Amino acid sequence: MKRKWSPRQWVQHLFLGIVLFSGIRFYLFVANLEKGIMPGFHRPDSVDAFLPISALLGLRHLISNQTIPAIHPAGLVIFLIVCGSALLVRRGFCAWVCPVGLLSDYLDTLNAKMFRHPPVMPRWLDLTLGIIKYVVAAFFIFQIFFVMPNAGVDGFLNSTANRFADIKMLWFFTHITPVALGVICVLVVLSLFFRRFWCRYLCPYGALLAVIGLFSPARVHRNPDRCVGCKKCDHHCPGLIAVSRKTTIRSPECLACLRCVSQCPEKGALSFSYFSGKTGISPEVMTGIFLVIFSLGIGAAMLTGHWQTHISADQYLAFTAQHRTAQAFNRRAALSQADAAEMQRIMIRMRKQKEKSLSAGLHEEARPTRADPSHDGKKRQGLGLH
Ligand code: SF4
Ligand code: SF4
What we know:
Transmembrane segments: 12-30, 70-89, 124-149, 169-194, 201-218, 285-303
Bound molecules: iron/sulfur cluster
Shape: globular
Main location: membrane
Keywords: Cell membrane, Iron, Iron-sulfur, Membrane, Metal-binding, Transmembrane, Transmembrane helix
GO molecular function: iron-sulfur cluster binding; metal ion binding
Order of helices and strands: HHHHHHHHHHHHEHEHEEHHH
Protein name: 4Fe-4S binding protein
Number of strands: 4
Largest sheet: 4 strands, antiparallel
Radius of gyration: 32 Å
């Protein structure tokens, strides 16, 4: 029998649909530009969600100037919504909205099918790798908020690199290099063996939400009086948390997925709630939280003119035309470089052949042959060997 989707899965697939719709629309937008055609539709601004560095710089700009930047403001709006959600429901974004989180769920399912006892990292390695995402997040935050001068932030926000970062991001995937593809494949394979490898060890966005989530009053609470110790919660927890051994889950790895709550056979033994279990948050409430904060945040940004980027379609067209010219130039340069290299190879080959035939000739001449005794004589005379 086909299993019904949980509210969380509905929300995840809804957001995946939005991401795919925006991604395809943006792809068509750029495809038109690449052909030199002005697209007859607007660029989907939601693609700015995939520019987290631009969003972080936008946040710095907002703090310093009290204004939302005009370039890719949607990225900053989504970033603020996501960080705000962490104050409400910790890393719920990872488990309820993020498409990579959904992919990790599917890989988790495969992992469960492949292994009766899924492989687990040794504790020391798990702790060591677990630091990586915090180091990466801290590096960017430190550089952007404590090292870069204000002028540098504004310079970057208005630079070509940032203005057209969305197109470059698309080209990264549409013209993916073998190295990048290899890295993605390795990460997928690692995630097949080790649950949520990317989310647990490498995602800096997850690290930031984990830290903000520490300030959230929402926690999973276990009532030891109701718990029968079946450990189903431990088994289903994607954050690998020993839920059955704690009364309150404070771990930054808790994704607020509510799997432990839904799998617990004892009513009232587990709850995801505010303030020591007094205000329970059901999956339906979580669904409402995400739909409401995203709709309200994006709606407010649209109404106040902080959603659309201030880059005109003409500027996008000019950028792609410039890129096409640069590419054609590079191709020609590469071809003439290849021609020069080929010419050099041919010349080296010819020189080697000439040297070989010369030395062979000398060798031939120096060697006496029975068939030509006169030659032997001449040679001997010529060489002064009597
Ligand atoms: S503790 Fe519960 S809510 Fe948190 S990640 Fe584990 S299963 Fe999900
Ligand atoms: S699933 Fe529920 S009953 Fe079982 S160990 Fe966890 S909290 Fe206790």
